[in-house]
Structures are given as C-alpha cells and as structure tokens.
Amino acid sequence: MSAVPDRRAAVIAGLGCHLPPDVVTNDDLTRRLDTSDEWIRTRTGIATRHVVAPGVATSDLAVEAGRRALDSAGGGADAVVLATTTPDRPCPATAPDVAARLGLGQVAAFDVSAVCSGFLYGLATAAGLIASGTAGRVLLIAADAFTTIVDPADRGTAVIFADGAGAVVLRAGDPAEPGAVGRVVLGSDGALSGLIEVPAGGSRQRSSRTAAAPGEEFFRMAGREVYRQAVGHMVASSRLAAEAAGWNGPGDADRFAAHQANARILGTAAGELGIPPERRLSNIEHVGNTGAASLPVLLAQAAAEGTLAAGHLLLLTAFGGGLSWGATALVWPDVKPC
Ligand code: ACO
C-alpha cells in the first residue's frame, strides 16, 4: 500500500479546451465599429477571435472542454466546479447541467463567479474540496461566452472579448508531486467593483423589462483604469505566489501564463517580474480575451504545442472584475491535453 501523505494535494491530471468554430477578424469588426485593424493589433495584440454562434451557450462550450479534460485524465470526477461570468441563466448554476451532460451522474456541482480570475479561484476551491476529502477528483472548467454580454456597439470592449472554454481534472495526490497545486494567492477590491460590471440583471437592478435604462445589461469596463490595476495586482500576487512556492522570485519561472487580457498588460507585467519574452506564454493574437477560460485554454494550447512541458516551473496569474485577482506557482506535470 502506498504511503498516505500528511496533506492531500490537488494534482493536475488532465487538460482540455474548446473554442467555438466561428472566427471574427479585426476587419470584420471595422465593418460595424469605428476602429481599425492597426488600432486593435497595436493596442491589444489581437488579430482574430472565436465567437459563439447564436443559440450556443456557456454550457455547450464547457461540456466540450470538460469531455476533453476527462479523456486526457483517463477517468471521471466526483465534483464539477465551473468558473464563469456568463452562466446559461441567472438560476440555477450551470455546473449541474454540465455534469449531467458529461454523464457524471449526481455529483457535487456548482459555479464560481470571479470573472477573469475565475480559473484561479476555481483552482483554490477544487484544491479545498480535495484537501478536505469532500471530493477525490474534481473537474474544474472555466468557460465564458463573453460575446453574449458585450455591447456590440462598444468599441472599447467588443474588440477584446471572445468565447471559449478550458478545463483541468484534479486528483488527490502528494504535495511534492509535479502538478500539485500549492497556495493560490487570491485577492479582491470590491470598492472598485464598478470598473468592470454588468449593471442590470441582478437583484439591485432587474432585467431591462423592468429597469429604467435598457442597455444596462451589457458589460462595461473602464479600460484605462482597469489596465493600471491589472498590472499592479498581477505583479504583486505573482511575487507572493513565487515566495509561497519557495522560489527565489518570479524570475525563476520557466513559463509565465497570465490572463490574456491585452498583450501590452502582459508585456508590462512580465517585464516588471523579470520574465524574458521567450518564457511568456501567449495566445491572445488568435484567441482574444476569453474571460475565465483564458488561462486553461492557454495552458492546453501551450502543452499541445510543447511550449509548456513536464518539469517547467510555471507561474500563473489572472486579474478581472470584482475587482479580483490571483496567482499560483507549480511544477508542470506530464499531462497530454485532448
Ligand atoms: N478603436 C479605435 N479607437 C479606440 C478603440 C477602438 N476599438 N477603443 C478605444 N479607442 C479610443 C478611445 O476612445 C480613446 O480615444 P480618445 O483619446 O480620443 O479619447 C483612445 O482610443 C484611447 O483609449 P484608451 O481607453 O485609453 O485606450 P487603451 O490604450 O487603454 O486601450 C483597452 C483600451 C484595450 C480597453 C485597454 O485599456 C485594456 O485592455 N484595458 C484592460 C483590460 C483588462 O485587463 N480587463 C481586465 C480583465 S477582463 C475582465 O475581467 C472581464
């Protein structure tokens, strides 16, 4: 019988992602917005992005990514955590529907709402489920159909956001194993919640059928101020995560994976952390900002391409609405994404 570790760590055992097939180019956007391919490329780093077809919902993306992660892990899960900004409907959570469609039966299933930081909040939640013995294997999916809440007439957001889903399977294991999730540094600043918001559709201001101002159900972002906040919090949380992992500092990272919000933000944050360009993972050029899905899609694509390999010291960080942020540092395991 193998020795039982003092602490049950959550270990990454499977990985997958799914992007909807429809692609929107910058030139497509210039046909309906006062913008240009040049502005979008130089200010955001984005050239194309994947978007859902009408009628496709977050759960549809989540089921595809979840199935791939389960195949990659070669087994099931006894809990499903779905990080999303765009649940299929306000009530109930979308995770139980996803679990049922994946054939996982009557397992624990719930949503985590932390906007673009959702994957890291979900990782901490999944690790807690495993550490407490509540679950043995957790399917963590991060999925967003972000274009369903973006105002198509708002050039400040419509050029950035896109749709997709990524997932990991976490199993119980030893804290010293590659793939073990250690401390996840998390933070929030609700005093600045208005910088990134969908004003209506909740209990404060109901849907536009009853709200005073139609259009309040669209997503809004104070881009310039959010940019400033994003760099500061991703840098500070990355430093804490590197320290918690026992590294000399963030510069030890073989690979740096940050929420793909904007290529300039990523460049600035990585520069401040002392991480050279060849160690920065990025897919923003052809994926855009997929909200909560951003990090696991990036990891799945990088692992498939081989730019992220077993044994790499990986630093992960994200920032989003809430405001919310997080970071964690781990040794990348030998997993094959599906
Ligand atoms: N095309 C052309 N011009 C534009 C566009 C566009 N698509 N969007 C804005 N502009 C204009 C503005 O109107 C402004 O014009 P003005 O100078 O005449 O007033 C000018 O460009 C500069 O505007 P800024 O908002 O200062 O542009 P900036 O360089 O900051 O880029 C952007 C805007 C891309 C939104 C950037 O601020 C950004 O990426 N912010 C952070 C995004 C982020 O990290 N979000 C958090 C995670 S996402 C989440 O949680 C949901």
TrEMBL record:
Question: InterPro entries per the record?
Answer: ACP_syn_III_C (IPR013747), ACP_syn_III_N (IPR013751), FabH (IPR004655), Thiolase-like (IPR016039)
Q: Which residues form the Beta-ketoacyl-[acyl-carrier-protein] synthase III N-terminal domain?
A: 110-190
Where are the annotated segments for ACP-binding? 260-264
Give a yes or no for keyword Magnesium in this entry. no
Catalytically driven reaction(s): malonyl-[ACP] + acetyl-CoA + H(+) = 3-oxobutanoyl-[ACP] + CO2 + CoA
Q: Where in the cell is it found?
A: Cytoplasm
- Name the predominant localization: cytoplasm
A single Gene Ontology MF term assigned here is: beta-ketoacyl-acyl-carrier-protein synthase III activity
Regarding protein family, the annotation reads: Belongs to the thiolase-like superfamily. FabH family.
Recorded domain comment: The last Arg residue of the ACP-binding site is essential for the weak association between ACP/AcpP and FabH.
Please give the subunit comment from the record: Homodimer.
User: Know the name of this protein?
Assistant: Beta-ketoacyl-[acyl-carrier-protein] synthase III
Q: Which organism is it from?
A: Streptomyces gibsoniae
* Gene for this chain: fabH
